[in-house]
Amino acid sequence: MAKHKKWNEFQKEFLADAESAQHYLDIAFEDFQEDGDKSSLLKALRAVTEAQGGIGKLSESVDVKRESLYRALSESGNPTVETLCSVLKGLHLRIRIEPMPELIPEPSRA
User: Fold this and answer.
1) How far is the C-alpha of 30 from the C-alpha of 37, rounded, in Å?
2) How far apart are CA 74 and CA 40, in angstroms?
3) DSSP 59-107
4) CB atoms < 10 A from the CB of 72, how many?
């Protein structure tokens, strides 16, 4: 009989891959943009952080106190822009701004 992984184990392995983590967070940010559910976005950031070495490792690499990161990435967290950018930098990611597809004007036909 094949041994099945628990969801948390699978998620951690999946998110340990940088490209998978990037796509996961892209979707989390898109969902946040649509529904404003900040706790889900922070939960996604924390899941990626845990999969890529944990809060302690991230804290050391970005020079932010571990306790501050735990608070910022909790479901009720309210990280500053600086903390968010530090977390993303520690995960080797960054914020990119692009137009929302539904707001891109149609080219005029003359």
Assistant:
1) 11
2) 10
3) HHHHT--HHHHHHHTSTT----HHHHHHHHHHTT--------GGGSPPP
4) 20
Q: Which of 77, 76, 45 is nearest to 62 (CA)?
A: 45
User: Left, alpha or beta for 55 (phi > 0: left; psi -120 to 50: alpha)?
Assistant: alpha
Domains of the chain: 12-94 (1.10.260)
Q: Render pLDDT for 19-56 as a digit per residue (tens, 0 to 9).
A: 999 999 999 999 999 999 999 999 999 999 999 999 99
Tell me the C-alpha distance between 54 and 67, whole Å. Answer: 12
Q: Which residues contact 4 (CB under 8 A, 6 or more apart)?
A: none
What pTM was computed for the model? 0.83
Cα distance between residue 45 and residue 48, in whole Å: 5
**Residues 50 and 12 sit within 8 Å (Cβ to Cβ):** yes
